[in-house]
Structures are given as C-alpha cells and as structure tokens.
Amino acid sequence: MHLKDAVKNSFLFSDLSPESLADLEKISIRRTFGKGEMPFHEDEPANSLFMLGSGSVNLVKSSAEGKEQLIRTVKPGEIFAEAALFSGENYPVTAIATAKSIVYSINKEKLLKFISKKPEVSLKMMGAMARLLRHLNSLIADLTLGSVSSRLAKFLLTKYNETGSKSFDLGMKKQDLAKKLGTAGETLSRNLSKFKDLSLIDIKGSYVVIKDLKGLKKYIEKE
Amino acid sequence: MHLKDAVKNSFLFSDLSPESLADLEKISIRRTFGKGEMPFHEDEPANSLFMLGSGSVNLVKSSAEGKEQLIRTVKPGEIFAEAALFSGENYPVTAIATAKSIVYSINKEKLLKFISKKPEVSLKMMGAMARLLRHLNSLIADLTLGSVSSRLAKFLLTKYNETGSKSFDLGMKKQDLAKKLGTAGETLSRNLSKFKDLSLIDIKGSYVVIKDLKGLKKYIEKE
DNA sequence: CGTTCGCTTGAGGCCGTTCAAGCGACGTGG
DNA sequence: CCACGTCGCTTGAACGGCCTCAAGCGAACG
After folding, report:
1. Cys-Cys with A111: which of A3, A37, A106, B194 at CB 3.0–4.6 Å?
2. B132 touches chain A (CB under 8 A)
3. Which pLDDT belongs to residue B223?
4. What is the pTM of this model?
5. A32-49 burial string, b = 16+ CB within 10 Å, else e?
C-alpha cells in the first residue's frame, strides 16, 4: 500500500493538496509490523507521530507485574502517539500490532514544521486530540464507575449500533476483550455465561446474537 | 482580577501581543463562581473554552447512581474544557468550583477564529491537550492496574516531590482525595491508618509527615 | 449547648481476582 | 490418520480488596 492510498482514509491528511502530499511523503517512513510486534514501547523516547495504513494496532499501558490495560485500538487511517509530538518525554503507551500492519511514522520535528505551515492540519490535529480526550474521559468513567457486566453490556450495544445487526462477531479474542474491559479473562467468561443464562444473548465462539435489547440496556444503568 | 493578570500565568496566552490581548479580551467573559457552583455540567452542549483566573475547579465524571470520579483539578492559568472546542457535542465532564473562583469563558467559534490567525497559539493549544492526554493515560493505568494503597503512596510521593519537603498538607479534603484516588472515604481512611501503623507516615488532620520514603516507594511497585 | 461536618472504625457482603483443573478445537509430526 | 501438544476458553473454589451500612467521635460553628 502506498501513502497516497493510506491518506485517503486518514482524518488528518485526507484533503491535502498533491504538493503537500509529496512533502508529507518525503518526511514519512513506511514500515510493516507482524502480529505481536511493537512499533514503539512506552519507555522509549517519543520522537514520531504514527499513522496506521492497514491492519490493526492496540495501545496498552502495562504495570510492573505484567498486567495490561487496553487504552485504544487503532483503525486504519487513524493517527496515534499524538501526545508524543508536543512533550519531549517517552511514549505514554505501548503499541502492539494485533495483525500484520502497515505503519507510517513521521519525525516529530519535521511534522511540526510541516504542520505550522498548514493551519487546516493543526485544526484537524486538535480535533483528533479532542476526540481522544473524550474517549479517555469516558473510558475512565466506565472503568471506575461501572461494573464489568455494565461495561460488557455497553460494549455489546456499541457493537450492535456499529454493525446495525443483532448478530455479529466480537472482532477480537475474548482475552483482548477482557483487557479492553479492564478485567480478567475468567471474569469475562462468567459474565458472558450470565448474560446467556438470562437469555439476553446467545453466544457461540466469538459470534454473538442479541436476544433481549432492553434487558441489556438495563444492565448499563444498573451500575 | 483583570484578564491581563490572569493571562500572565496562563500557558496558552502568556506571550500574546498587547493587541492580541485586547482582541482576546473582547471575546472572553469573566464570571465568578462560589464554592460548589458549576461553571458547566456534563450534559450541557459545549460552546466555550474556559480559563481559570483564580481559585480552584474540579472536573468530575458522575454516574447515574451519584458516584463521582475526579478527573482533574484545574489550577489558575490553566484552560479546561479544551475538548469542547473541536467536537460539537456536550461537555465530557462537569466542572465544580471548590473555592471562590474567577473563570473566563470564551465562545468556541470566536476562539477558533482567533486561534486560526495565530499558529503559536495553536501549537500551545496542542501542547496543552497533549499533556492532558498523558495525564489521562496514566490516570487510567493507575486506576486500573494498581490498588488503593499504591495510588495513595504515589500521591504522597508526588506531593513530596512537588513540595520538596517530607512534611506537607494534603491540600484538599480527605473526601476529595478519596475521589481522586477513585475510592471511598472509608477506604482511604483505613489505608492512611495502615501506613501510619507501618510507620511509613505520620498524619494529623490533613498534615502529613513522611517517615519512611523507601517503604512508601515499595508500595507503589507492589501492585 | 446542640447541630453539623468530616473523619474514623467496625461488621458484613459482594465482586472480581487468582490458582487450578478440564475441555474442545486445531495443527503438527510420527 | 491418529497421538500429542498447544491454545483459548470455561468452570470451580477460595481468597481478598473494596464497598456499603451504621455507629461513634472530635472539632467547628452558630
């Protein structure tokens, strides 16, 4: 895949002029990562912004004991490590490719120079960061204020809204979903069984069918 | 207090030219809030950016059941509700003044116009958002990956680093500290007692003396 | 002097964790 | 083609951290 194509889906750079695009290409580096490889680690000095061309990347925080919290999963066209651009320290999270991925990295200083000539890009950049801020805010609220079953119900309903269908695939390993929900695999397993016993859903493998929409919605509120 | 003085401590606007400052003043509204009053609520449409002139403001997320998680406490000169600027929805959090505060609010569209003429301000704005992103990232990690005692130890050591002294005041009500640490008041109380019993600290009221720095540090790692 | 407020302390219970064992699906090598 | 190992998931049992409810206590304040 070429940068030109990647950029089409990109929020940040989608309507750049051809000349600008050529400039951007000069300062960006294209790399591919296999499943499990890490584009960057949270204890590395941050010197680049990244854009995902294809594949999928998870952003996680990990503790000394090896526990992990999934902060965000990046989809093609999205940028990540945006905080890296503006503070001279290390990356705040670790990036892990969960599938073969094409990643463009852009050196911090060069990008800053590039951006400063293009106010539209700055605005979009801020927009992207603002959306992230919202995401993190509600993630905090979720993790702190709610229970696992409420988070699970919310996840299922979000999937339902995204796909527009009552039956869908989880789209990730249950282990990963557990991490996303900030819990252990066993606990997720039990909660899925509970929902199944209550006839709220049916589940076979990673394939889910929502049977009782209202019932699930109640679970979101019910702490 | 006049906007001019507030701006001196402000990260965003600190080195604006006098003319720009005059422009800024035209589009900003000065308001004062008493303790407990709310400059904005998380279910209100977001139409302004805020800057704290003096006083102190807490940003919280609250759940249906009235539980609250403290996301950030804003200090004079800092801006807040920055995410509001770039996405047309509601405020992501609720702001509560914890002391008599002077707050400047700036209409979203007007500020955007103002900013777009000043790339330096955009850059600073992004810097501010980047710092926030980092803050939220580590908050999530803390809340998810660690225990209350670890978070408490981290808080105490941060205070120690900030003040440079082993004895200091908590700087807030214990209730508020509990919310900041994402726990209940009772649990905080027990943990403080535990640290005291272990001779890691001494505490009288909200006045703390650190007695065993290494002991506290161990608690941070220890899950 | 009584009330309110912030904090502490106790008792009980629940949710989620960890450790362990077991199970089916899958792939590989004999 | 089957045996075996691995992997992801499930299930059970026990433990424990944190929460809630409730009572009590000192300090501040009217």
Report:
1. A106
2. yes
3. 54
4. 0.86
5. ebeeeeebbebeeebbbb
